[in-house]
Design goal:
alpha/beta, Rossmann fold, seven-stranded mixed β-sheet, six-stranded mixed β-sheet, 34% helix
C-alpha cells in the first residue's frame, strides 16, 4: 500500500522550524474514508496537533494527499436543515456588505451548491469551484455551474481570463483543509476586484474548540485550527485586510470574516473579538497544553460511560468529527451496533477505524423502538436531531459527548 501522507518539519504558514507537539490523538484512518465491507480497510495516519512558537498557528503534524481526501467526497451540505436555513442569512449578510449591484460571486469548495443557490436566488451571477467530482456534478445538475478542480492561483487566473474579476469571493470552511494554502489565498486576491471586491471566509473558531474541548473537530482534513489572530495575520501577509466579523452556527461555532484588498475601519464587533481573544491567552502553547490534558481525560470518561451500558447501543451522525471521537476514545463496533445518517452516500459503508455500519434514517427509525440510548455523535446539530427523533417516536435518552463534559439528555 502506497504511503498517503507526509510529516511536516516546519510551520505551513510562516516556515518556522519551532513547532512542537501538543496532543497525539493516535494513529487513525482519514475521517471520511468510509469503506465497503469487502474492500481493503483504509490506512492509518498519525493524528498530532502541533503549535508554532513563532506565529502561534495550530496545525497537524501530517499532511494526507489531498487527492485521497477530496476527489470523491461524502459530506453534502444540503443534508443539514441547519445549514440550509443559515445559508439564507449568510448570503444576505455578504450582499449587504458588497458595494456592487447584482454581484458576481465565486465560492471555493462550493460542495453541492447549497450556499451559491441563495446568491443565485438573489439575482447574483454564481460560479463554484470544488475538487470532488461527484459533488461538483450534483451542483451542476442543479444549475449551479461548478468547476471540478482544486482551487489554486492558476485556476483563479483562468476564471479571470474567462469571466473577469469578482465582486464576492467566498471560502466557507475550506482554508483549514488546504495544504497549498498560500496558493489559495493568492488566488482569492487575484479574483477579487481591486477597490470594491469583498472576501468572505468562514472557519471553525479555534477559541471555541479550545474552550469547549471540541477535540473531535481535529481530523486529517483540518490541517489548521485558526484563531482570529492567526487567520488575520496570514491574510494580511497576502495584502488582504479583515474589517468585520460575525458568528456562525456551523461546526458547533465558527467565525465569518469579511475582508478586502484595501484597508477599511474595523467594526466594533471585530475589535471586541480581537480583544477577547487576546485576553483569553488562546494563542499560547500553555493554552493548548491544557487543552491536551483535558481532552485525554474527557476521552477516558466518555469511554467509561459507553462501556457501562449493557449490550450495544445506536449512534447518530457518521460525520468526520465522529470518526476522531470514536477512534480516540476507543469506541467501536463492540459497543455501537450502527450509526444512523441521512446522507445516502454513506449508507451501507463502515466507519474507518471503528468499523461500525452506517444505516439510513429510515432504517434507524425501525430500530429506535427497541433502543434506550443513542450516542449523539453529531452533537453540533443536537436540537435538530433530538427534535426529529422525538417526533419519530424515540422516548429514550441521548448520550451527548460534547461540548465540555459528556451528559445525558
Amino acid at each position: 500500500m502506497d504511503k498517503i501522507f507526509n510529516t511536516i518539519h516546519s510551520c505551513r504558514l510562516c516556515d518556522s522550524k519551532h513547532i512542537i507537539e501538543m496532543l497525539n490523538l493516535t494513529d487513525q484512518p482519514p475521517a471520511n474514508s468510509l469503506y465497503k465491507s469487502n474492500n481493503e480497510k483504509p490506512q492509518d495516519v498519525p493524528l498530532r496537533l502541533m503549535f508554532c512558537k513563532d506565529c502561534s498557528a495550530v496545525q497537524l503534524g501530517e499532511s494526507v494527499d489531498p487527492a485521497y481526501l477530496f476527489n470523491q467526497y461524502v459530506w453534502v451540505t444540503g443534508t443539514s436543515s441547519t445549514a440550509i436555513a443559515y445559508s439564507i442569512d449568510f448570503a444576505n449578510n455578504a450582499i449587504s456588505r458588497c458595494q456592487s449591484e447584482n454581484p458576481k460571486v465565486v465560492e471555493i469548495a462550493s460542495n453541492d451548491g447549497t450556499f451559491l443557490k441563495r446568491f443565485l436566488d438573489l439575482g447574483c451571477e454564481v460560479l463554484g469551484v470544488d475538487p470532488a467530482k461527484n459533488i461538483a456534478q450534483i451542483a451542476t445538475d442543479n444549475n449551479i455551474p461548478t468547476i471540478a478542480k482544486f482551487f489554486t492561483t492558476e485556476v483563479a487566473s483562468e476564471i479571470v481570463e474567462e469571466s473577469g474579476h469578482k465582486d464576492i469571493v467566498i471560502a466557507r470552511n475550506v482554508l483549514p483543509h488546504v495544504k497549498e494554502i498560500h496558493s489559495v489565498v493568492k488566488g482569492i486576491s487575484a479574483l477579487l476586484k481591486e477597490d470594491t471586491g469583498l472576501g468572505v471566509i468562514e472557519f471553525h473558531d479555534a477559541g471555541l474548540i479550545w474552550k469547549e474541548l471540541h477535540y473531535d473537530s481535529i481530523y486529517h482534513e483540518h490541517l489548521f485550527l485558526f484563531s482570529l489572530k492567526t487567520m488575520s495575520q496570514f491574510l494580511k501577509e497576502h495584502g488582504l485586510h479583515v474589517f468585520d466579523i460575525m458568528p456562525s452556527p456551523i461546526s458547533g461555532g465558527s467565525w465569518v470574516i469579511y475582508f478586502s484588498k484595501i484597508e477599511k475601519p474595523k467594526s466594533k464587533k471585530l475589535l471586541s473579538v480581537e480583544n477577547d481573544e487576546k485576553d483569553s491567552g488562546l494563542n499560547t502553547a500553555a493554552a493548548w497544553d491544557d487543552f491536551s490534558k483535558k481532552s485525554i481525560a474527557h476521552a477516558e470518561k466518555l469511554k467509561e460511560l459507553i462501556f457501562a451500558e449493557e449490550g450495544k447501543i445506536l449512534a447518530y451522525g457518521a460525520s468526520a468529527r465522529s470518526s476522531t471521537l470514536l477512534n480516540f476514545c476507543g469506541i467501536d463496533s463492540q459497543k455501537i451496533s450502527a450509526i444512523i445518517d441521512k446522507n445516502p452516500l454513506k449508507h451501507d459503508l463502515f466507519t474507518p477505524g471503528s468499523d461500525i455500519p452506517v444505516i439510513s434514517y429510515e432504517e434507524g427509525l425501525k430500530r429506535i423502538v427497541d433502543t434506550k440510548k443513542i450516542l449523539l455523535l453529531a452533537w453540533n446539530f443536537q436540537d435538530e436531531i433530538v427534535r426529529d427523533l422525538r417526533e419519530s417516536g424515540f422516548e429514550g435518552e441521548f448520550i451527548v459527548p460534547l461540548p465540555n463534559e459528556p451528559h445525558i439528555v
